[in-house]
Amino acid sequence: EVQLVQSGAEVKKPGESLKISCKGSGYSFTSYWIGWVRQMPGKGLEWMGIIYPGDSDTRYSPSFQGQVTISADKSISTAYLQWSSLKASDTAMYYCARPAWFGEYEYYFDYWGQGTLVTVSS
Amino acid sequence: QSVLTQPPSVSGAPGQRVTISCTGSSSNIGAGYDVHWYQQLPGTAPKLLIYGNSNRPSGVPDRFSGSKSGTSASLAITGLQAEDEADYYCQSYDSSLSGSNVFGTGTKVTVL
Q1: What's the mean pLDDT in A54-60?
Q2: What span, in angstroms and rounded, lies between the C-alpha atoms of B75 and B72?
Q3: Nearest Cβ partner of A105 from B46, B47, B93?
Q4: DSSP 3-state assignment of B62?
Q5: CA distances from residue B103 to A61, B3, B15, B28, B83 in whole angstroms, order as listed
Q6: For testing the chain A interface, which of B38, B47, B101 should be mutated: the one with the most A CBs within 10 Å?
Q7: How far is CA A4 from CA A79, A100, A105, B69, in A?
Q8: pLDDT digits (tens, 9 = 90+) for B55-67
């Protein structure tokens, strides 16, 4: 059974750093991309970026390029989303999800993690 | 601001049929890229509902159906049930946004 299990909720202060995780199991972690999706309180879904753990090829949404870092450790089947200096506007639920590709550019997300709530407040 | 526009809300009585539109442009849906749909029940992660415009993953009831025409796509729910009350999002690829796969603005379905 494919599972994506995310790390627990975080409460941080503005300016602090943070790294949240997403552990994949039930499939070959290095053979599938992993993506991250943001959902701000009461708002919709926003695609942030994706990574291929096999070679760490990473693609970012223009809206998130330079704001976050996506990485992966294939030895422990875990993907990460990282901030170097959090802002209050980073307060959101973050989901990891596995893309299912069906073309050079197109995919949909067939498996999702349970979400990690990040709260940034002074 | 998403490039895929959905109505903020739709509602219907149990047993009725409701449709949700997803309006795009010539750089996404109109360019021939497929549309996918997700259901997000309150307090839970999104779940894939329709992929490739009209395909249902295993386990999704056939009350849910999808279609695409021109620069728009639609999700239809027939025989509306109380458990269908949720947020619904479309998703597609947009060639003008550096390889972004974008989500729609989202639609809240209320069962009256």
Answers
A1: 93
A2: 11
A3: B93
A4: coil
A5: 12, 8, 28, 11, 23
A6: B101
A7: 10, 14, 23, 34
A8: 999 999 999 999 9
